[in-house]
Automatic annotation (TrEMBL):
Taxonomic classification: Bacteria, Bacillati, Actinomycetota, Actinomycetes, Kitasatosporales
Coiled-coil residue spans: none
GO molecular function (one): DNA-binding transcription factor activity
Pfam family, any one: TetR_N
Species, as recorded: Streptomyces mirabilis
The name this protein goes by in its record: TetR/AcrR family transcriptional regulator
Annotated ranges, domain HTH tetR-type: 7-67
PROSITE patterns per the UniProt record, alphabetical: HTH_TETR_2
Keywords linked to the UniProt accession: DNA-binding, Transcription, Transcription regulation
DNA-binding region per UniProt: 30-49
Length: 190
C-alpha cells in the first residue's frame, strides 16, 4: 500500500507516469508496458498504488493537485477582479493543454479517474463562484448570482474538456477558455 509521504524517487516516478498517461492515455496500457516504459519494476509501481486502477487514480489526483497549485500561483499574482477571472480560466486552459484527447477520453470512461476530474471541476466552479462574489463585494462586478455563474462555468468547462465545444465550434480548448473568460467578465461587468 502506498504511503502518504513519497520519496523523491517515488515523486519523480509519479511525475513521469503522469506525463506518459497524459500524452498517451491509460486504458490500453498494461502494468508490464508501464514498467518497461518507465524503466522500473512492478514492485516500484506498487509502492505508488496497489493496482493499475489505483495507480491511474493516483496519477490523475497528482496531476490535478499540481495543476491547481500552479493555477492558484498565477491568480495570487493578480489583484483586479476581472483579471483574476481571466487569469484563472486561462491558467486552467494552460494546465489542460498537455492532456491528450485520448487521456481525456480514457478518464471519462474510467469511474475512479472521472470522479477525480469531476471533483476538480466542482472545485473550479467553486473558485469561479468565489472570484465572482469577491468582485461583486468589491463593486467591480454587478450584483449577479455567483453560484449560478460558477455552475455555468463548470458546465462549459466539462464540455470543453470532453471536446464537445471544439467539435461544434472549431475552437481549440485554449481559445474556448479565452472566450469563456471574456463572456463571464463581460456578463458580470457593470
Amino acid at each position: 500500500m502506498p504511503s502518504t509521504r513519497r520519496t523523491a524517487r517515488q515523486t519523480d516516478l509519479l511525475e513521469r507516469l503522469v506525463a506518459l498517461l497524459a500524452a498517451e492515455g491509460f486504458a490500453s496500457f498494461t502494468l508490464d508496458e508501464l514498467t518497461e516504459r518507465l524503466r522500473c519494476s512492478k514492485t516500484t509501481l506498487y509502492q505508488l498504488a496497489g493496482s493499475k486502477q489505483e495507480l491511474v487514480r493516483e496519477a490523475v489526483k497528482h496531476y490535478f493537485r499540481s495543476a491547481a497549485e500552479a493555477i492558484e500561483k498565477q491568480v495570487a499574482d493578480t489583484s483586479a477582479p476581472a483579471e483574476r477571472v481571466v487569469v484563472y480560466l486561462n491558467a486552467v486552459a494552460q494546465q489542460l493543454r498537455p492532456l491528450s484527447r485520448r487521456f481525456l477520453d480514457d478518464m471519462a470512461g474510467f469511474e475512479p479517474a472521472r470522479e477525480v476530474y469531476e471533483a476538480n471541476t466542482r472545485l473550479a466552479a467553486g473558485r469561479i463562484r468565489q472570484l465572482i462574489a469577491d468582485g461583486v463585494a468589491a463593486g467591480a462586478f454587478r450584483d449577479v448570482h455567483a453560484a449560478f455563474v460558477g455552475e455555468v462555468v463548470a458546465a462549459t468547462m466539462q464540455e470543453i474538456q470532453r471536446g464537445e465545444v471544439s467539435a461544434r465550434t472549431g475552437l481549440t480548448d485554449a481559445e474556448a477558455y479565452a472566450e469563456l473568460a471574456s463572456l463571464i467578465v463581460h456578463a458580470v461587468s457593470p
